[in-house]
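Field log, afternoon session.

UNIT: design team B
ACTIVITY: writing a sequence onto a fixed backbone
BACKBONE:
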């Protein structure tokens, strides 16, 4: 069963768009942060360590995936946010405080909701380009949402 789940996840990752990959990371960070908070509340410190550590790993991946050459100010702000969350998780782990993890969960949830809205805006921009460009062959123009998304998107090498 585990092999099937891993194969499914691998297929999902390799077939996802860069925007979908970032969303998957945000959802994974949320899932692991919740696991960490639950572990702290249950006094199950192995569970809390695993969840918090995995969430921190994803935050590092999100930081490393930023492309400041495309959107420097946005990337700088997000790197600061992700670094803040990483540090708060360190504090939560050392103080064994689930409320601190809850703070990170709220931030991650807000970030996920914002990303979903950006993806929808990008989808609308792309649909508008297709409708306007049907019948004419021209170089694609990047819209405002695509400029922002390009600085945050994640790619998979493999």
């Amino acid at each position: 069963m585990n092999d099937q789940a891993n194969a499914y996840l691998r297929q999902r990752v390799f077939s996802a768009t860069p925007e979908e990959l970032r969303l998957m990371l945000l959802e994974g960070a949320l899932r692991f942060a919740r696991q960490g908070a639950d572990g702290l509340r249950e006094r199950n410190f192995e569970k809390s360590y695993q969840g918090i550590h995995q969430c921190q790993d994803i935050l590092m991946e999100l930081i490393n995936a930023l492309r400041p050459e495309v959107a420097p100010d946005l990337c700088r702000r997000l790197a600061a946010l992700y670094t803040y969350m990483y540090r708060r998780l360190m504090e939560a782990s050392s103080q064994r405080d689930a409320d601190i993890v809850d703070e990170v969960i709220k931030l991650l949830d807000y970030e996920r909701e914002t990303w979903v809205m950006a993806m929808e805006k990008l989808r609308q921009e792309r649909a508008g380009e297709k409708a306007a460009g049907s019948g004419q062959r021209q170089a694609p123009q990047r819209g405002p949402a695509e400029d922002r998304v390009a600085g945050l998107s994640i790619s998979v090498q493999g």
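LOG NOTE: The chain has a mean pLDDT of 86.
NEXT ACTIVITY: expression trials, pending approval
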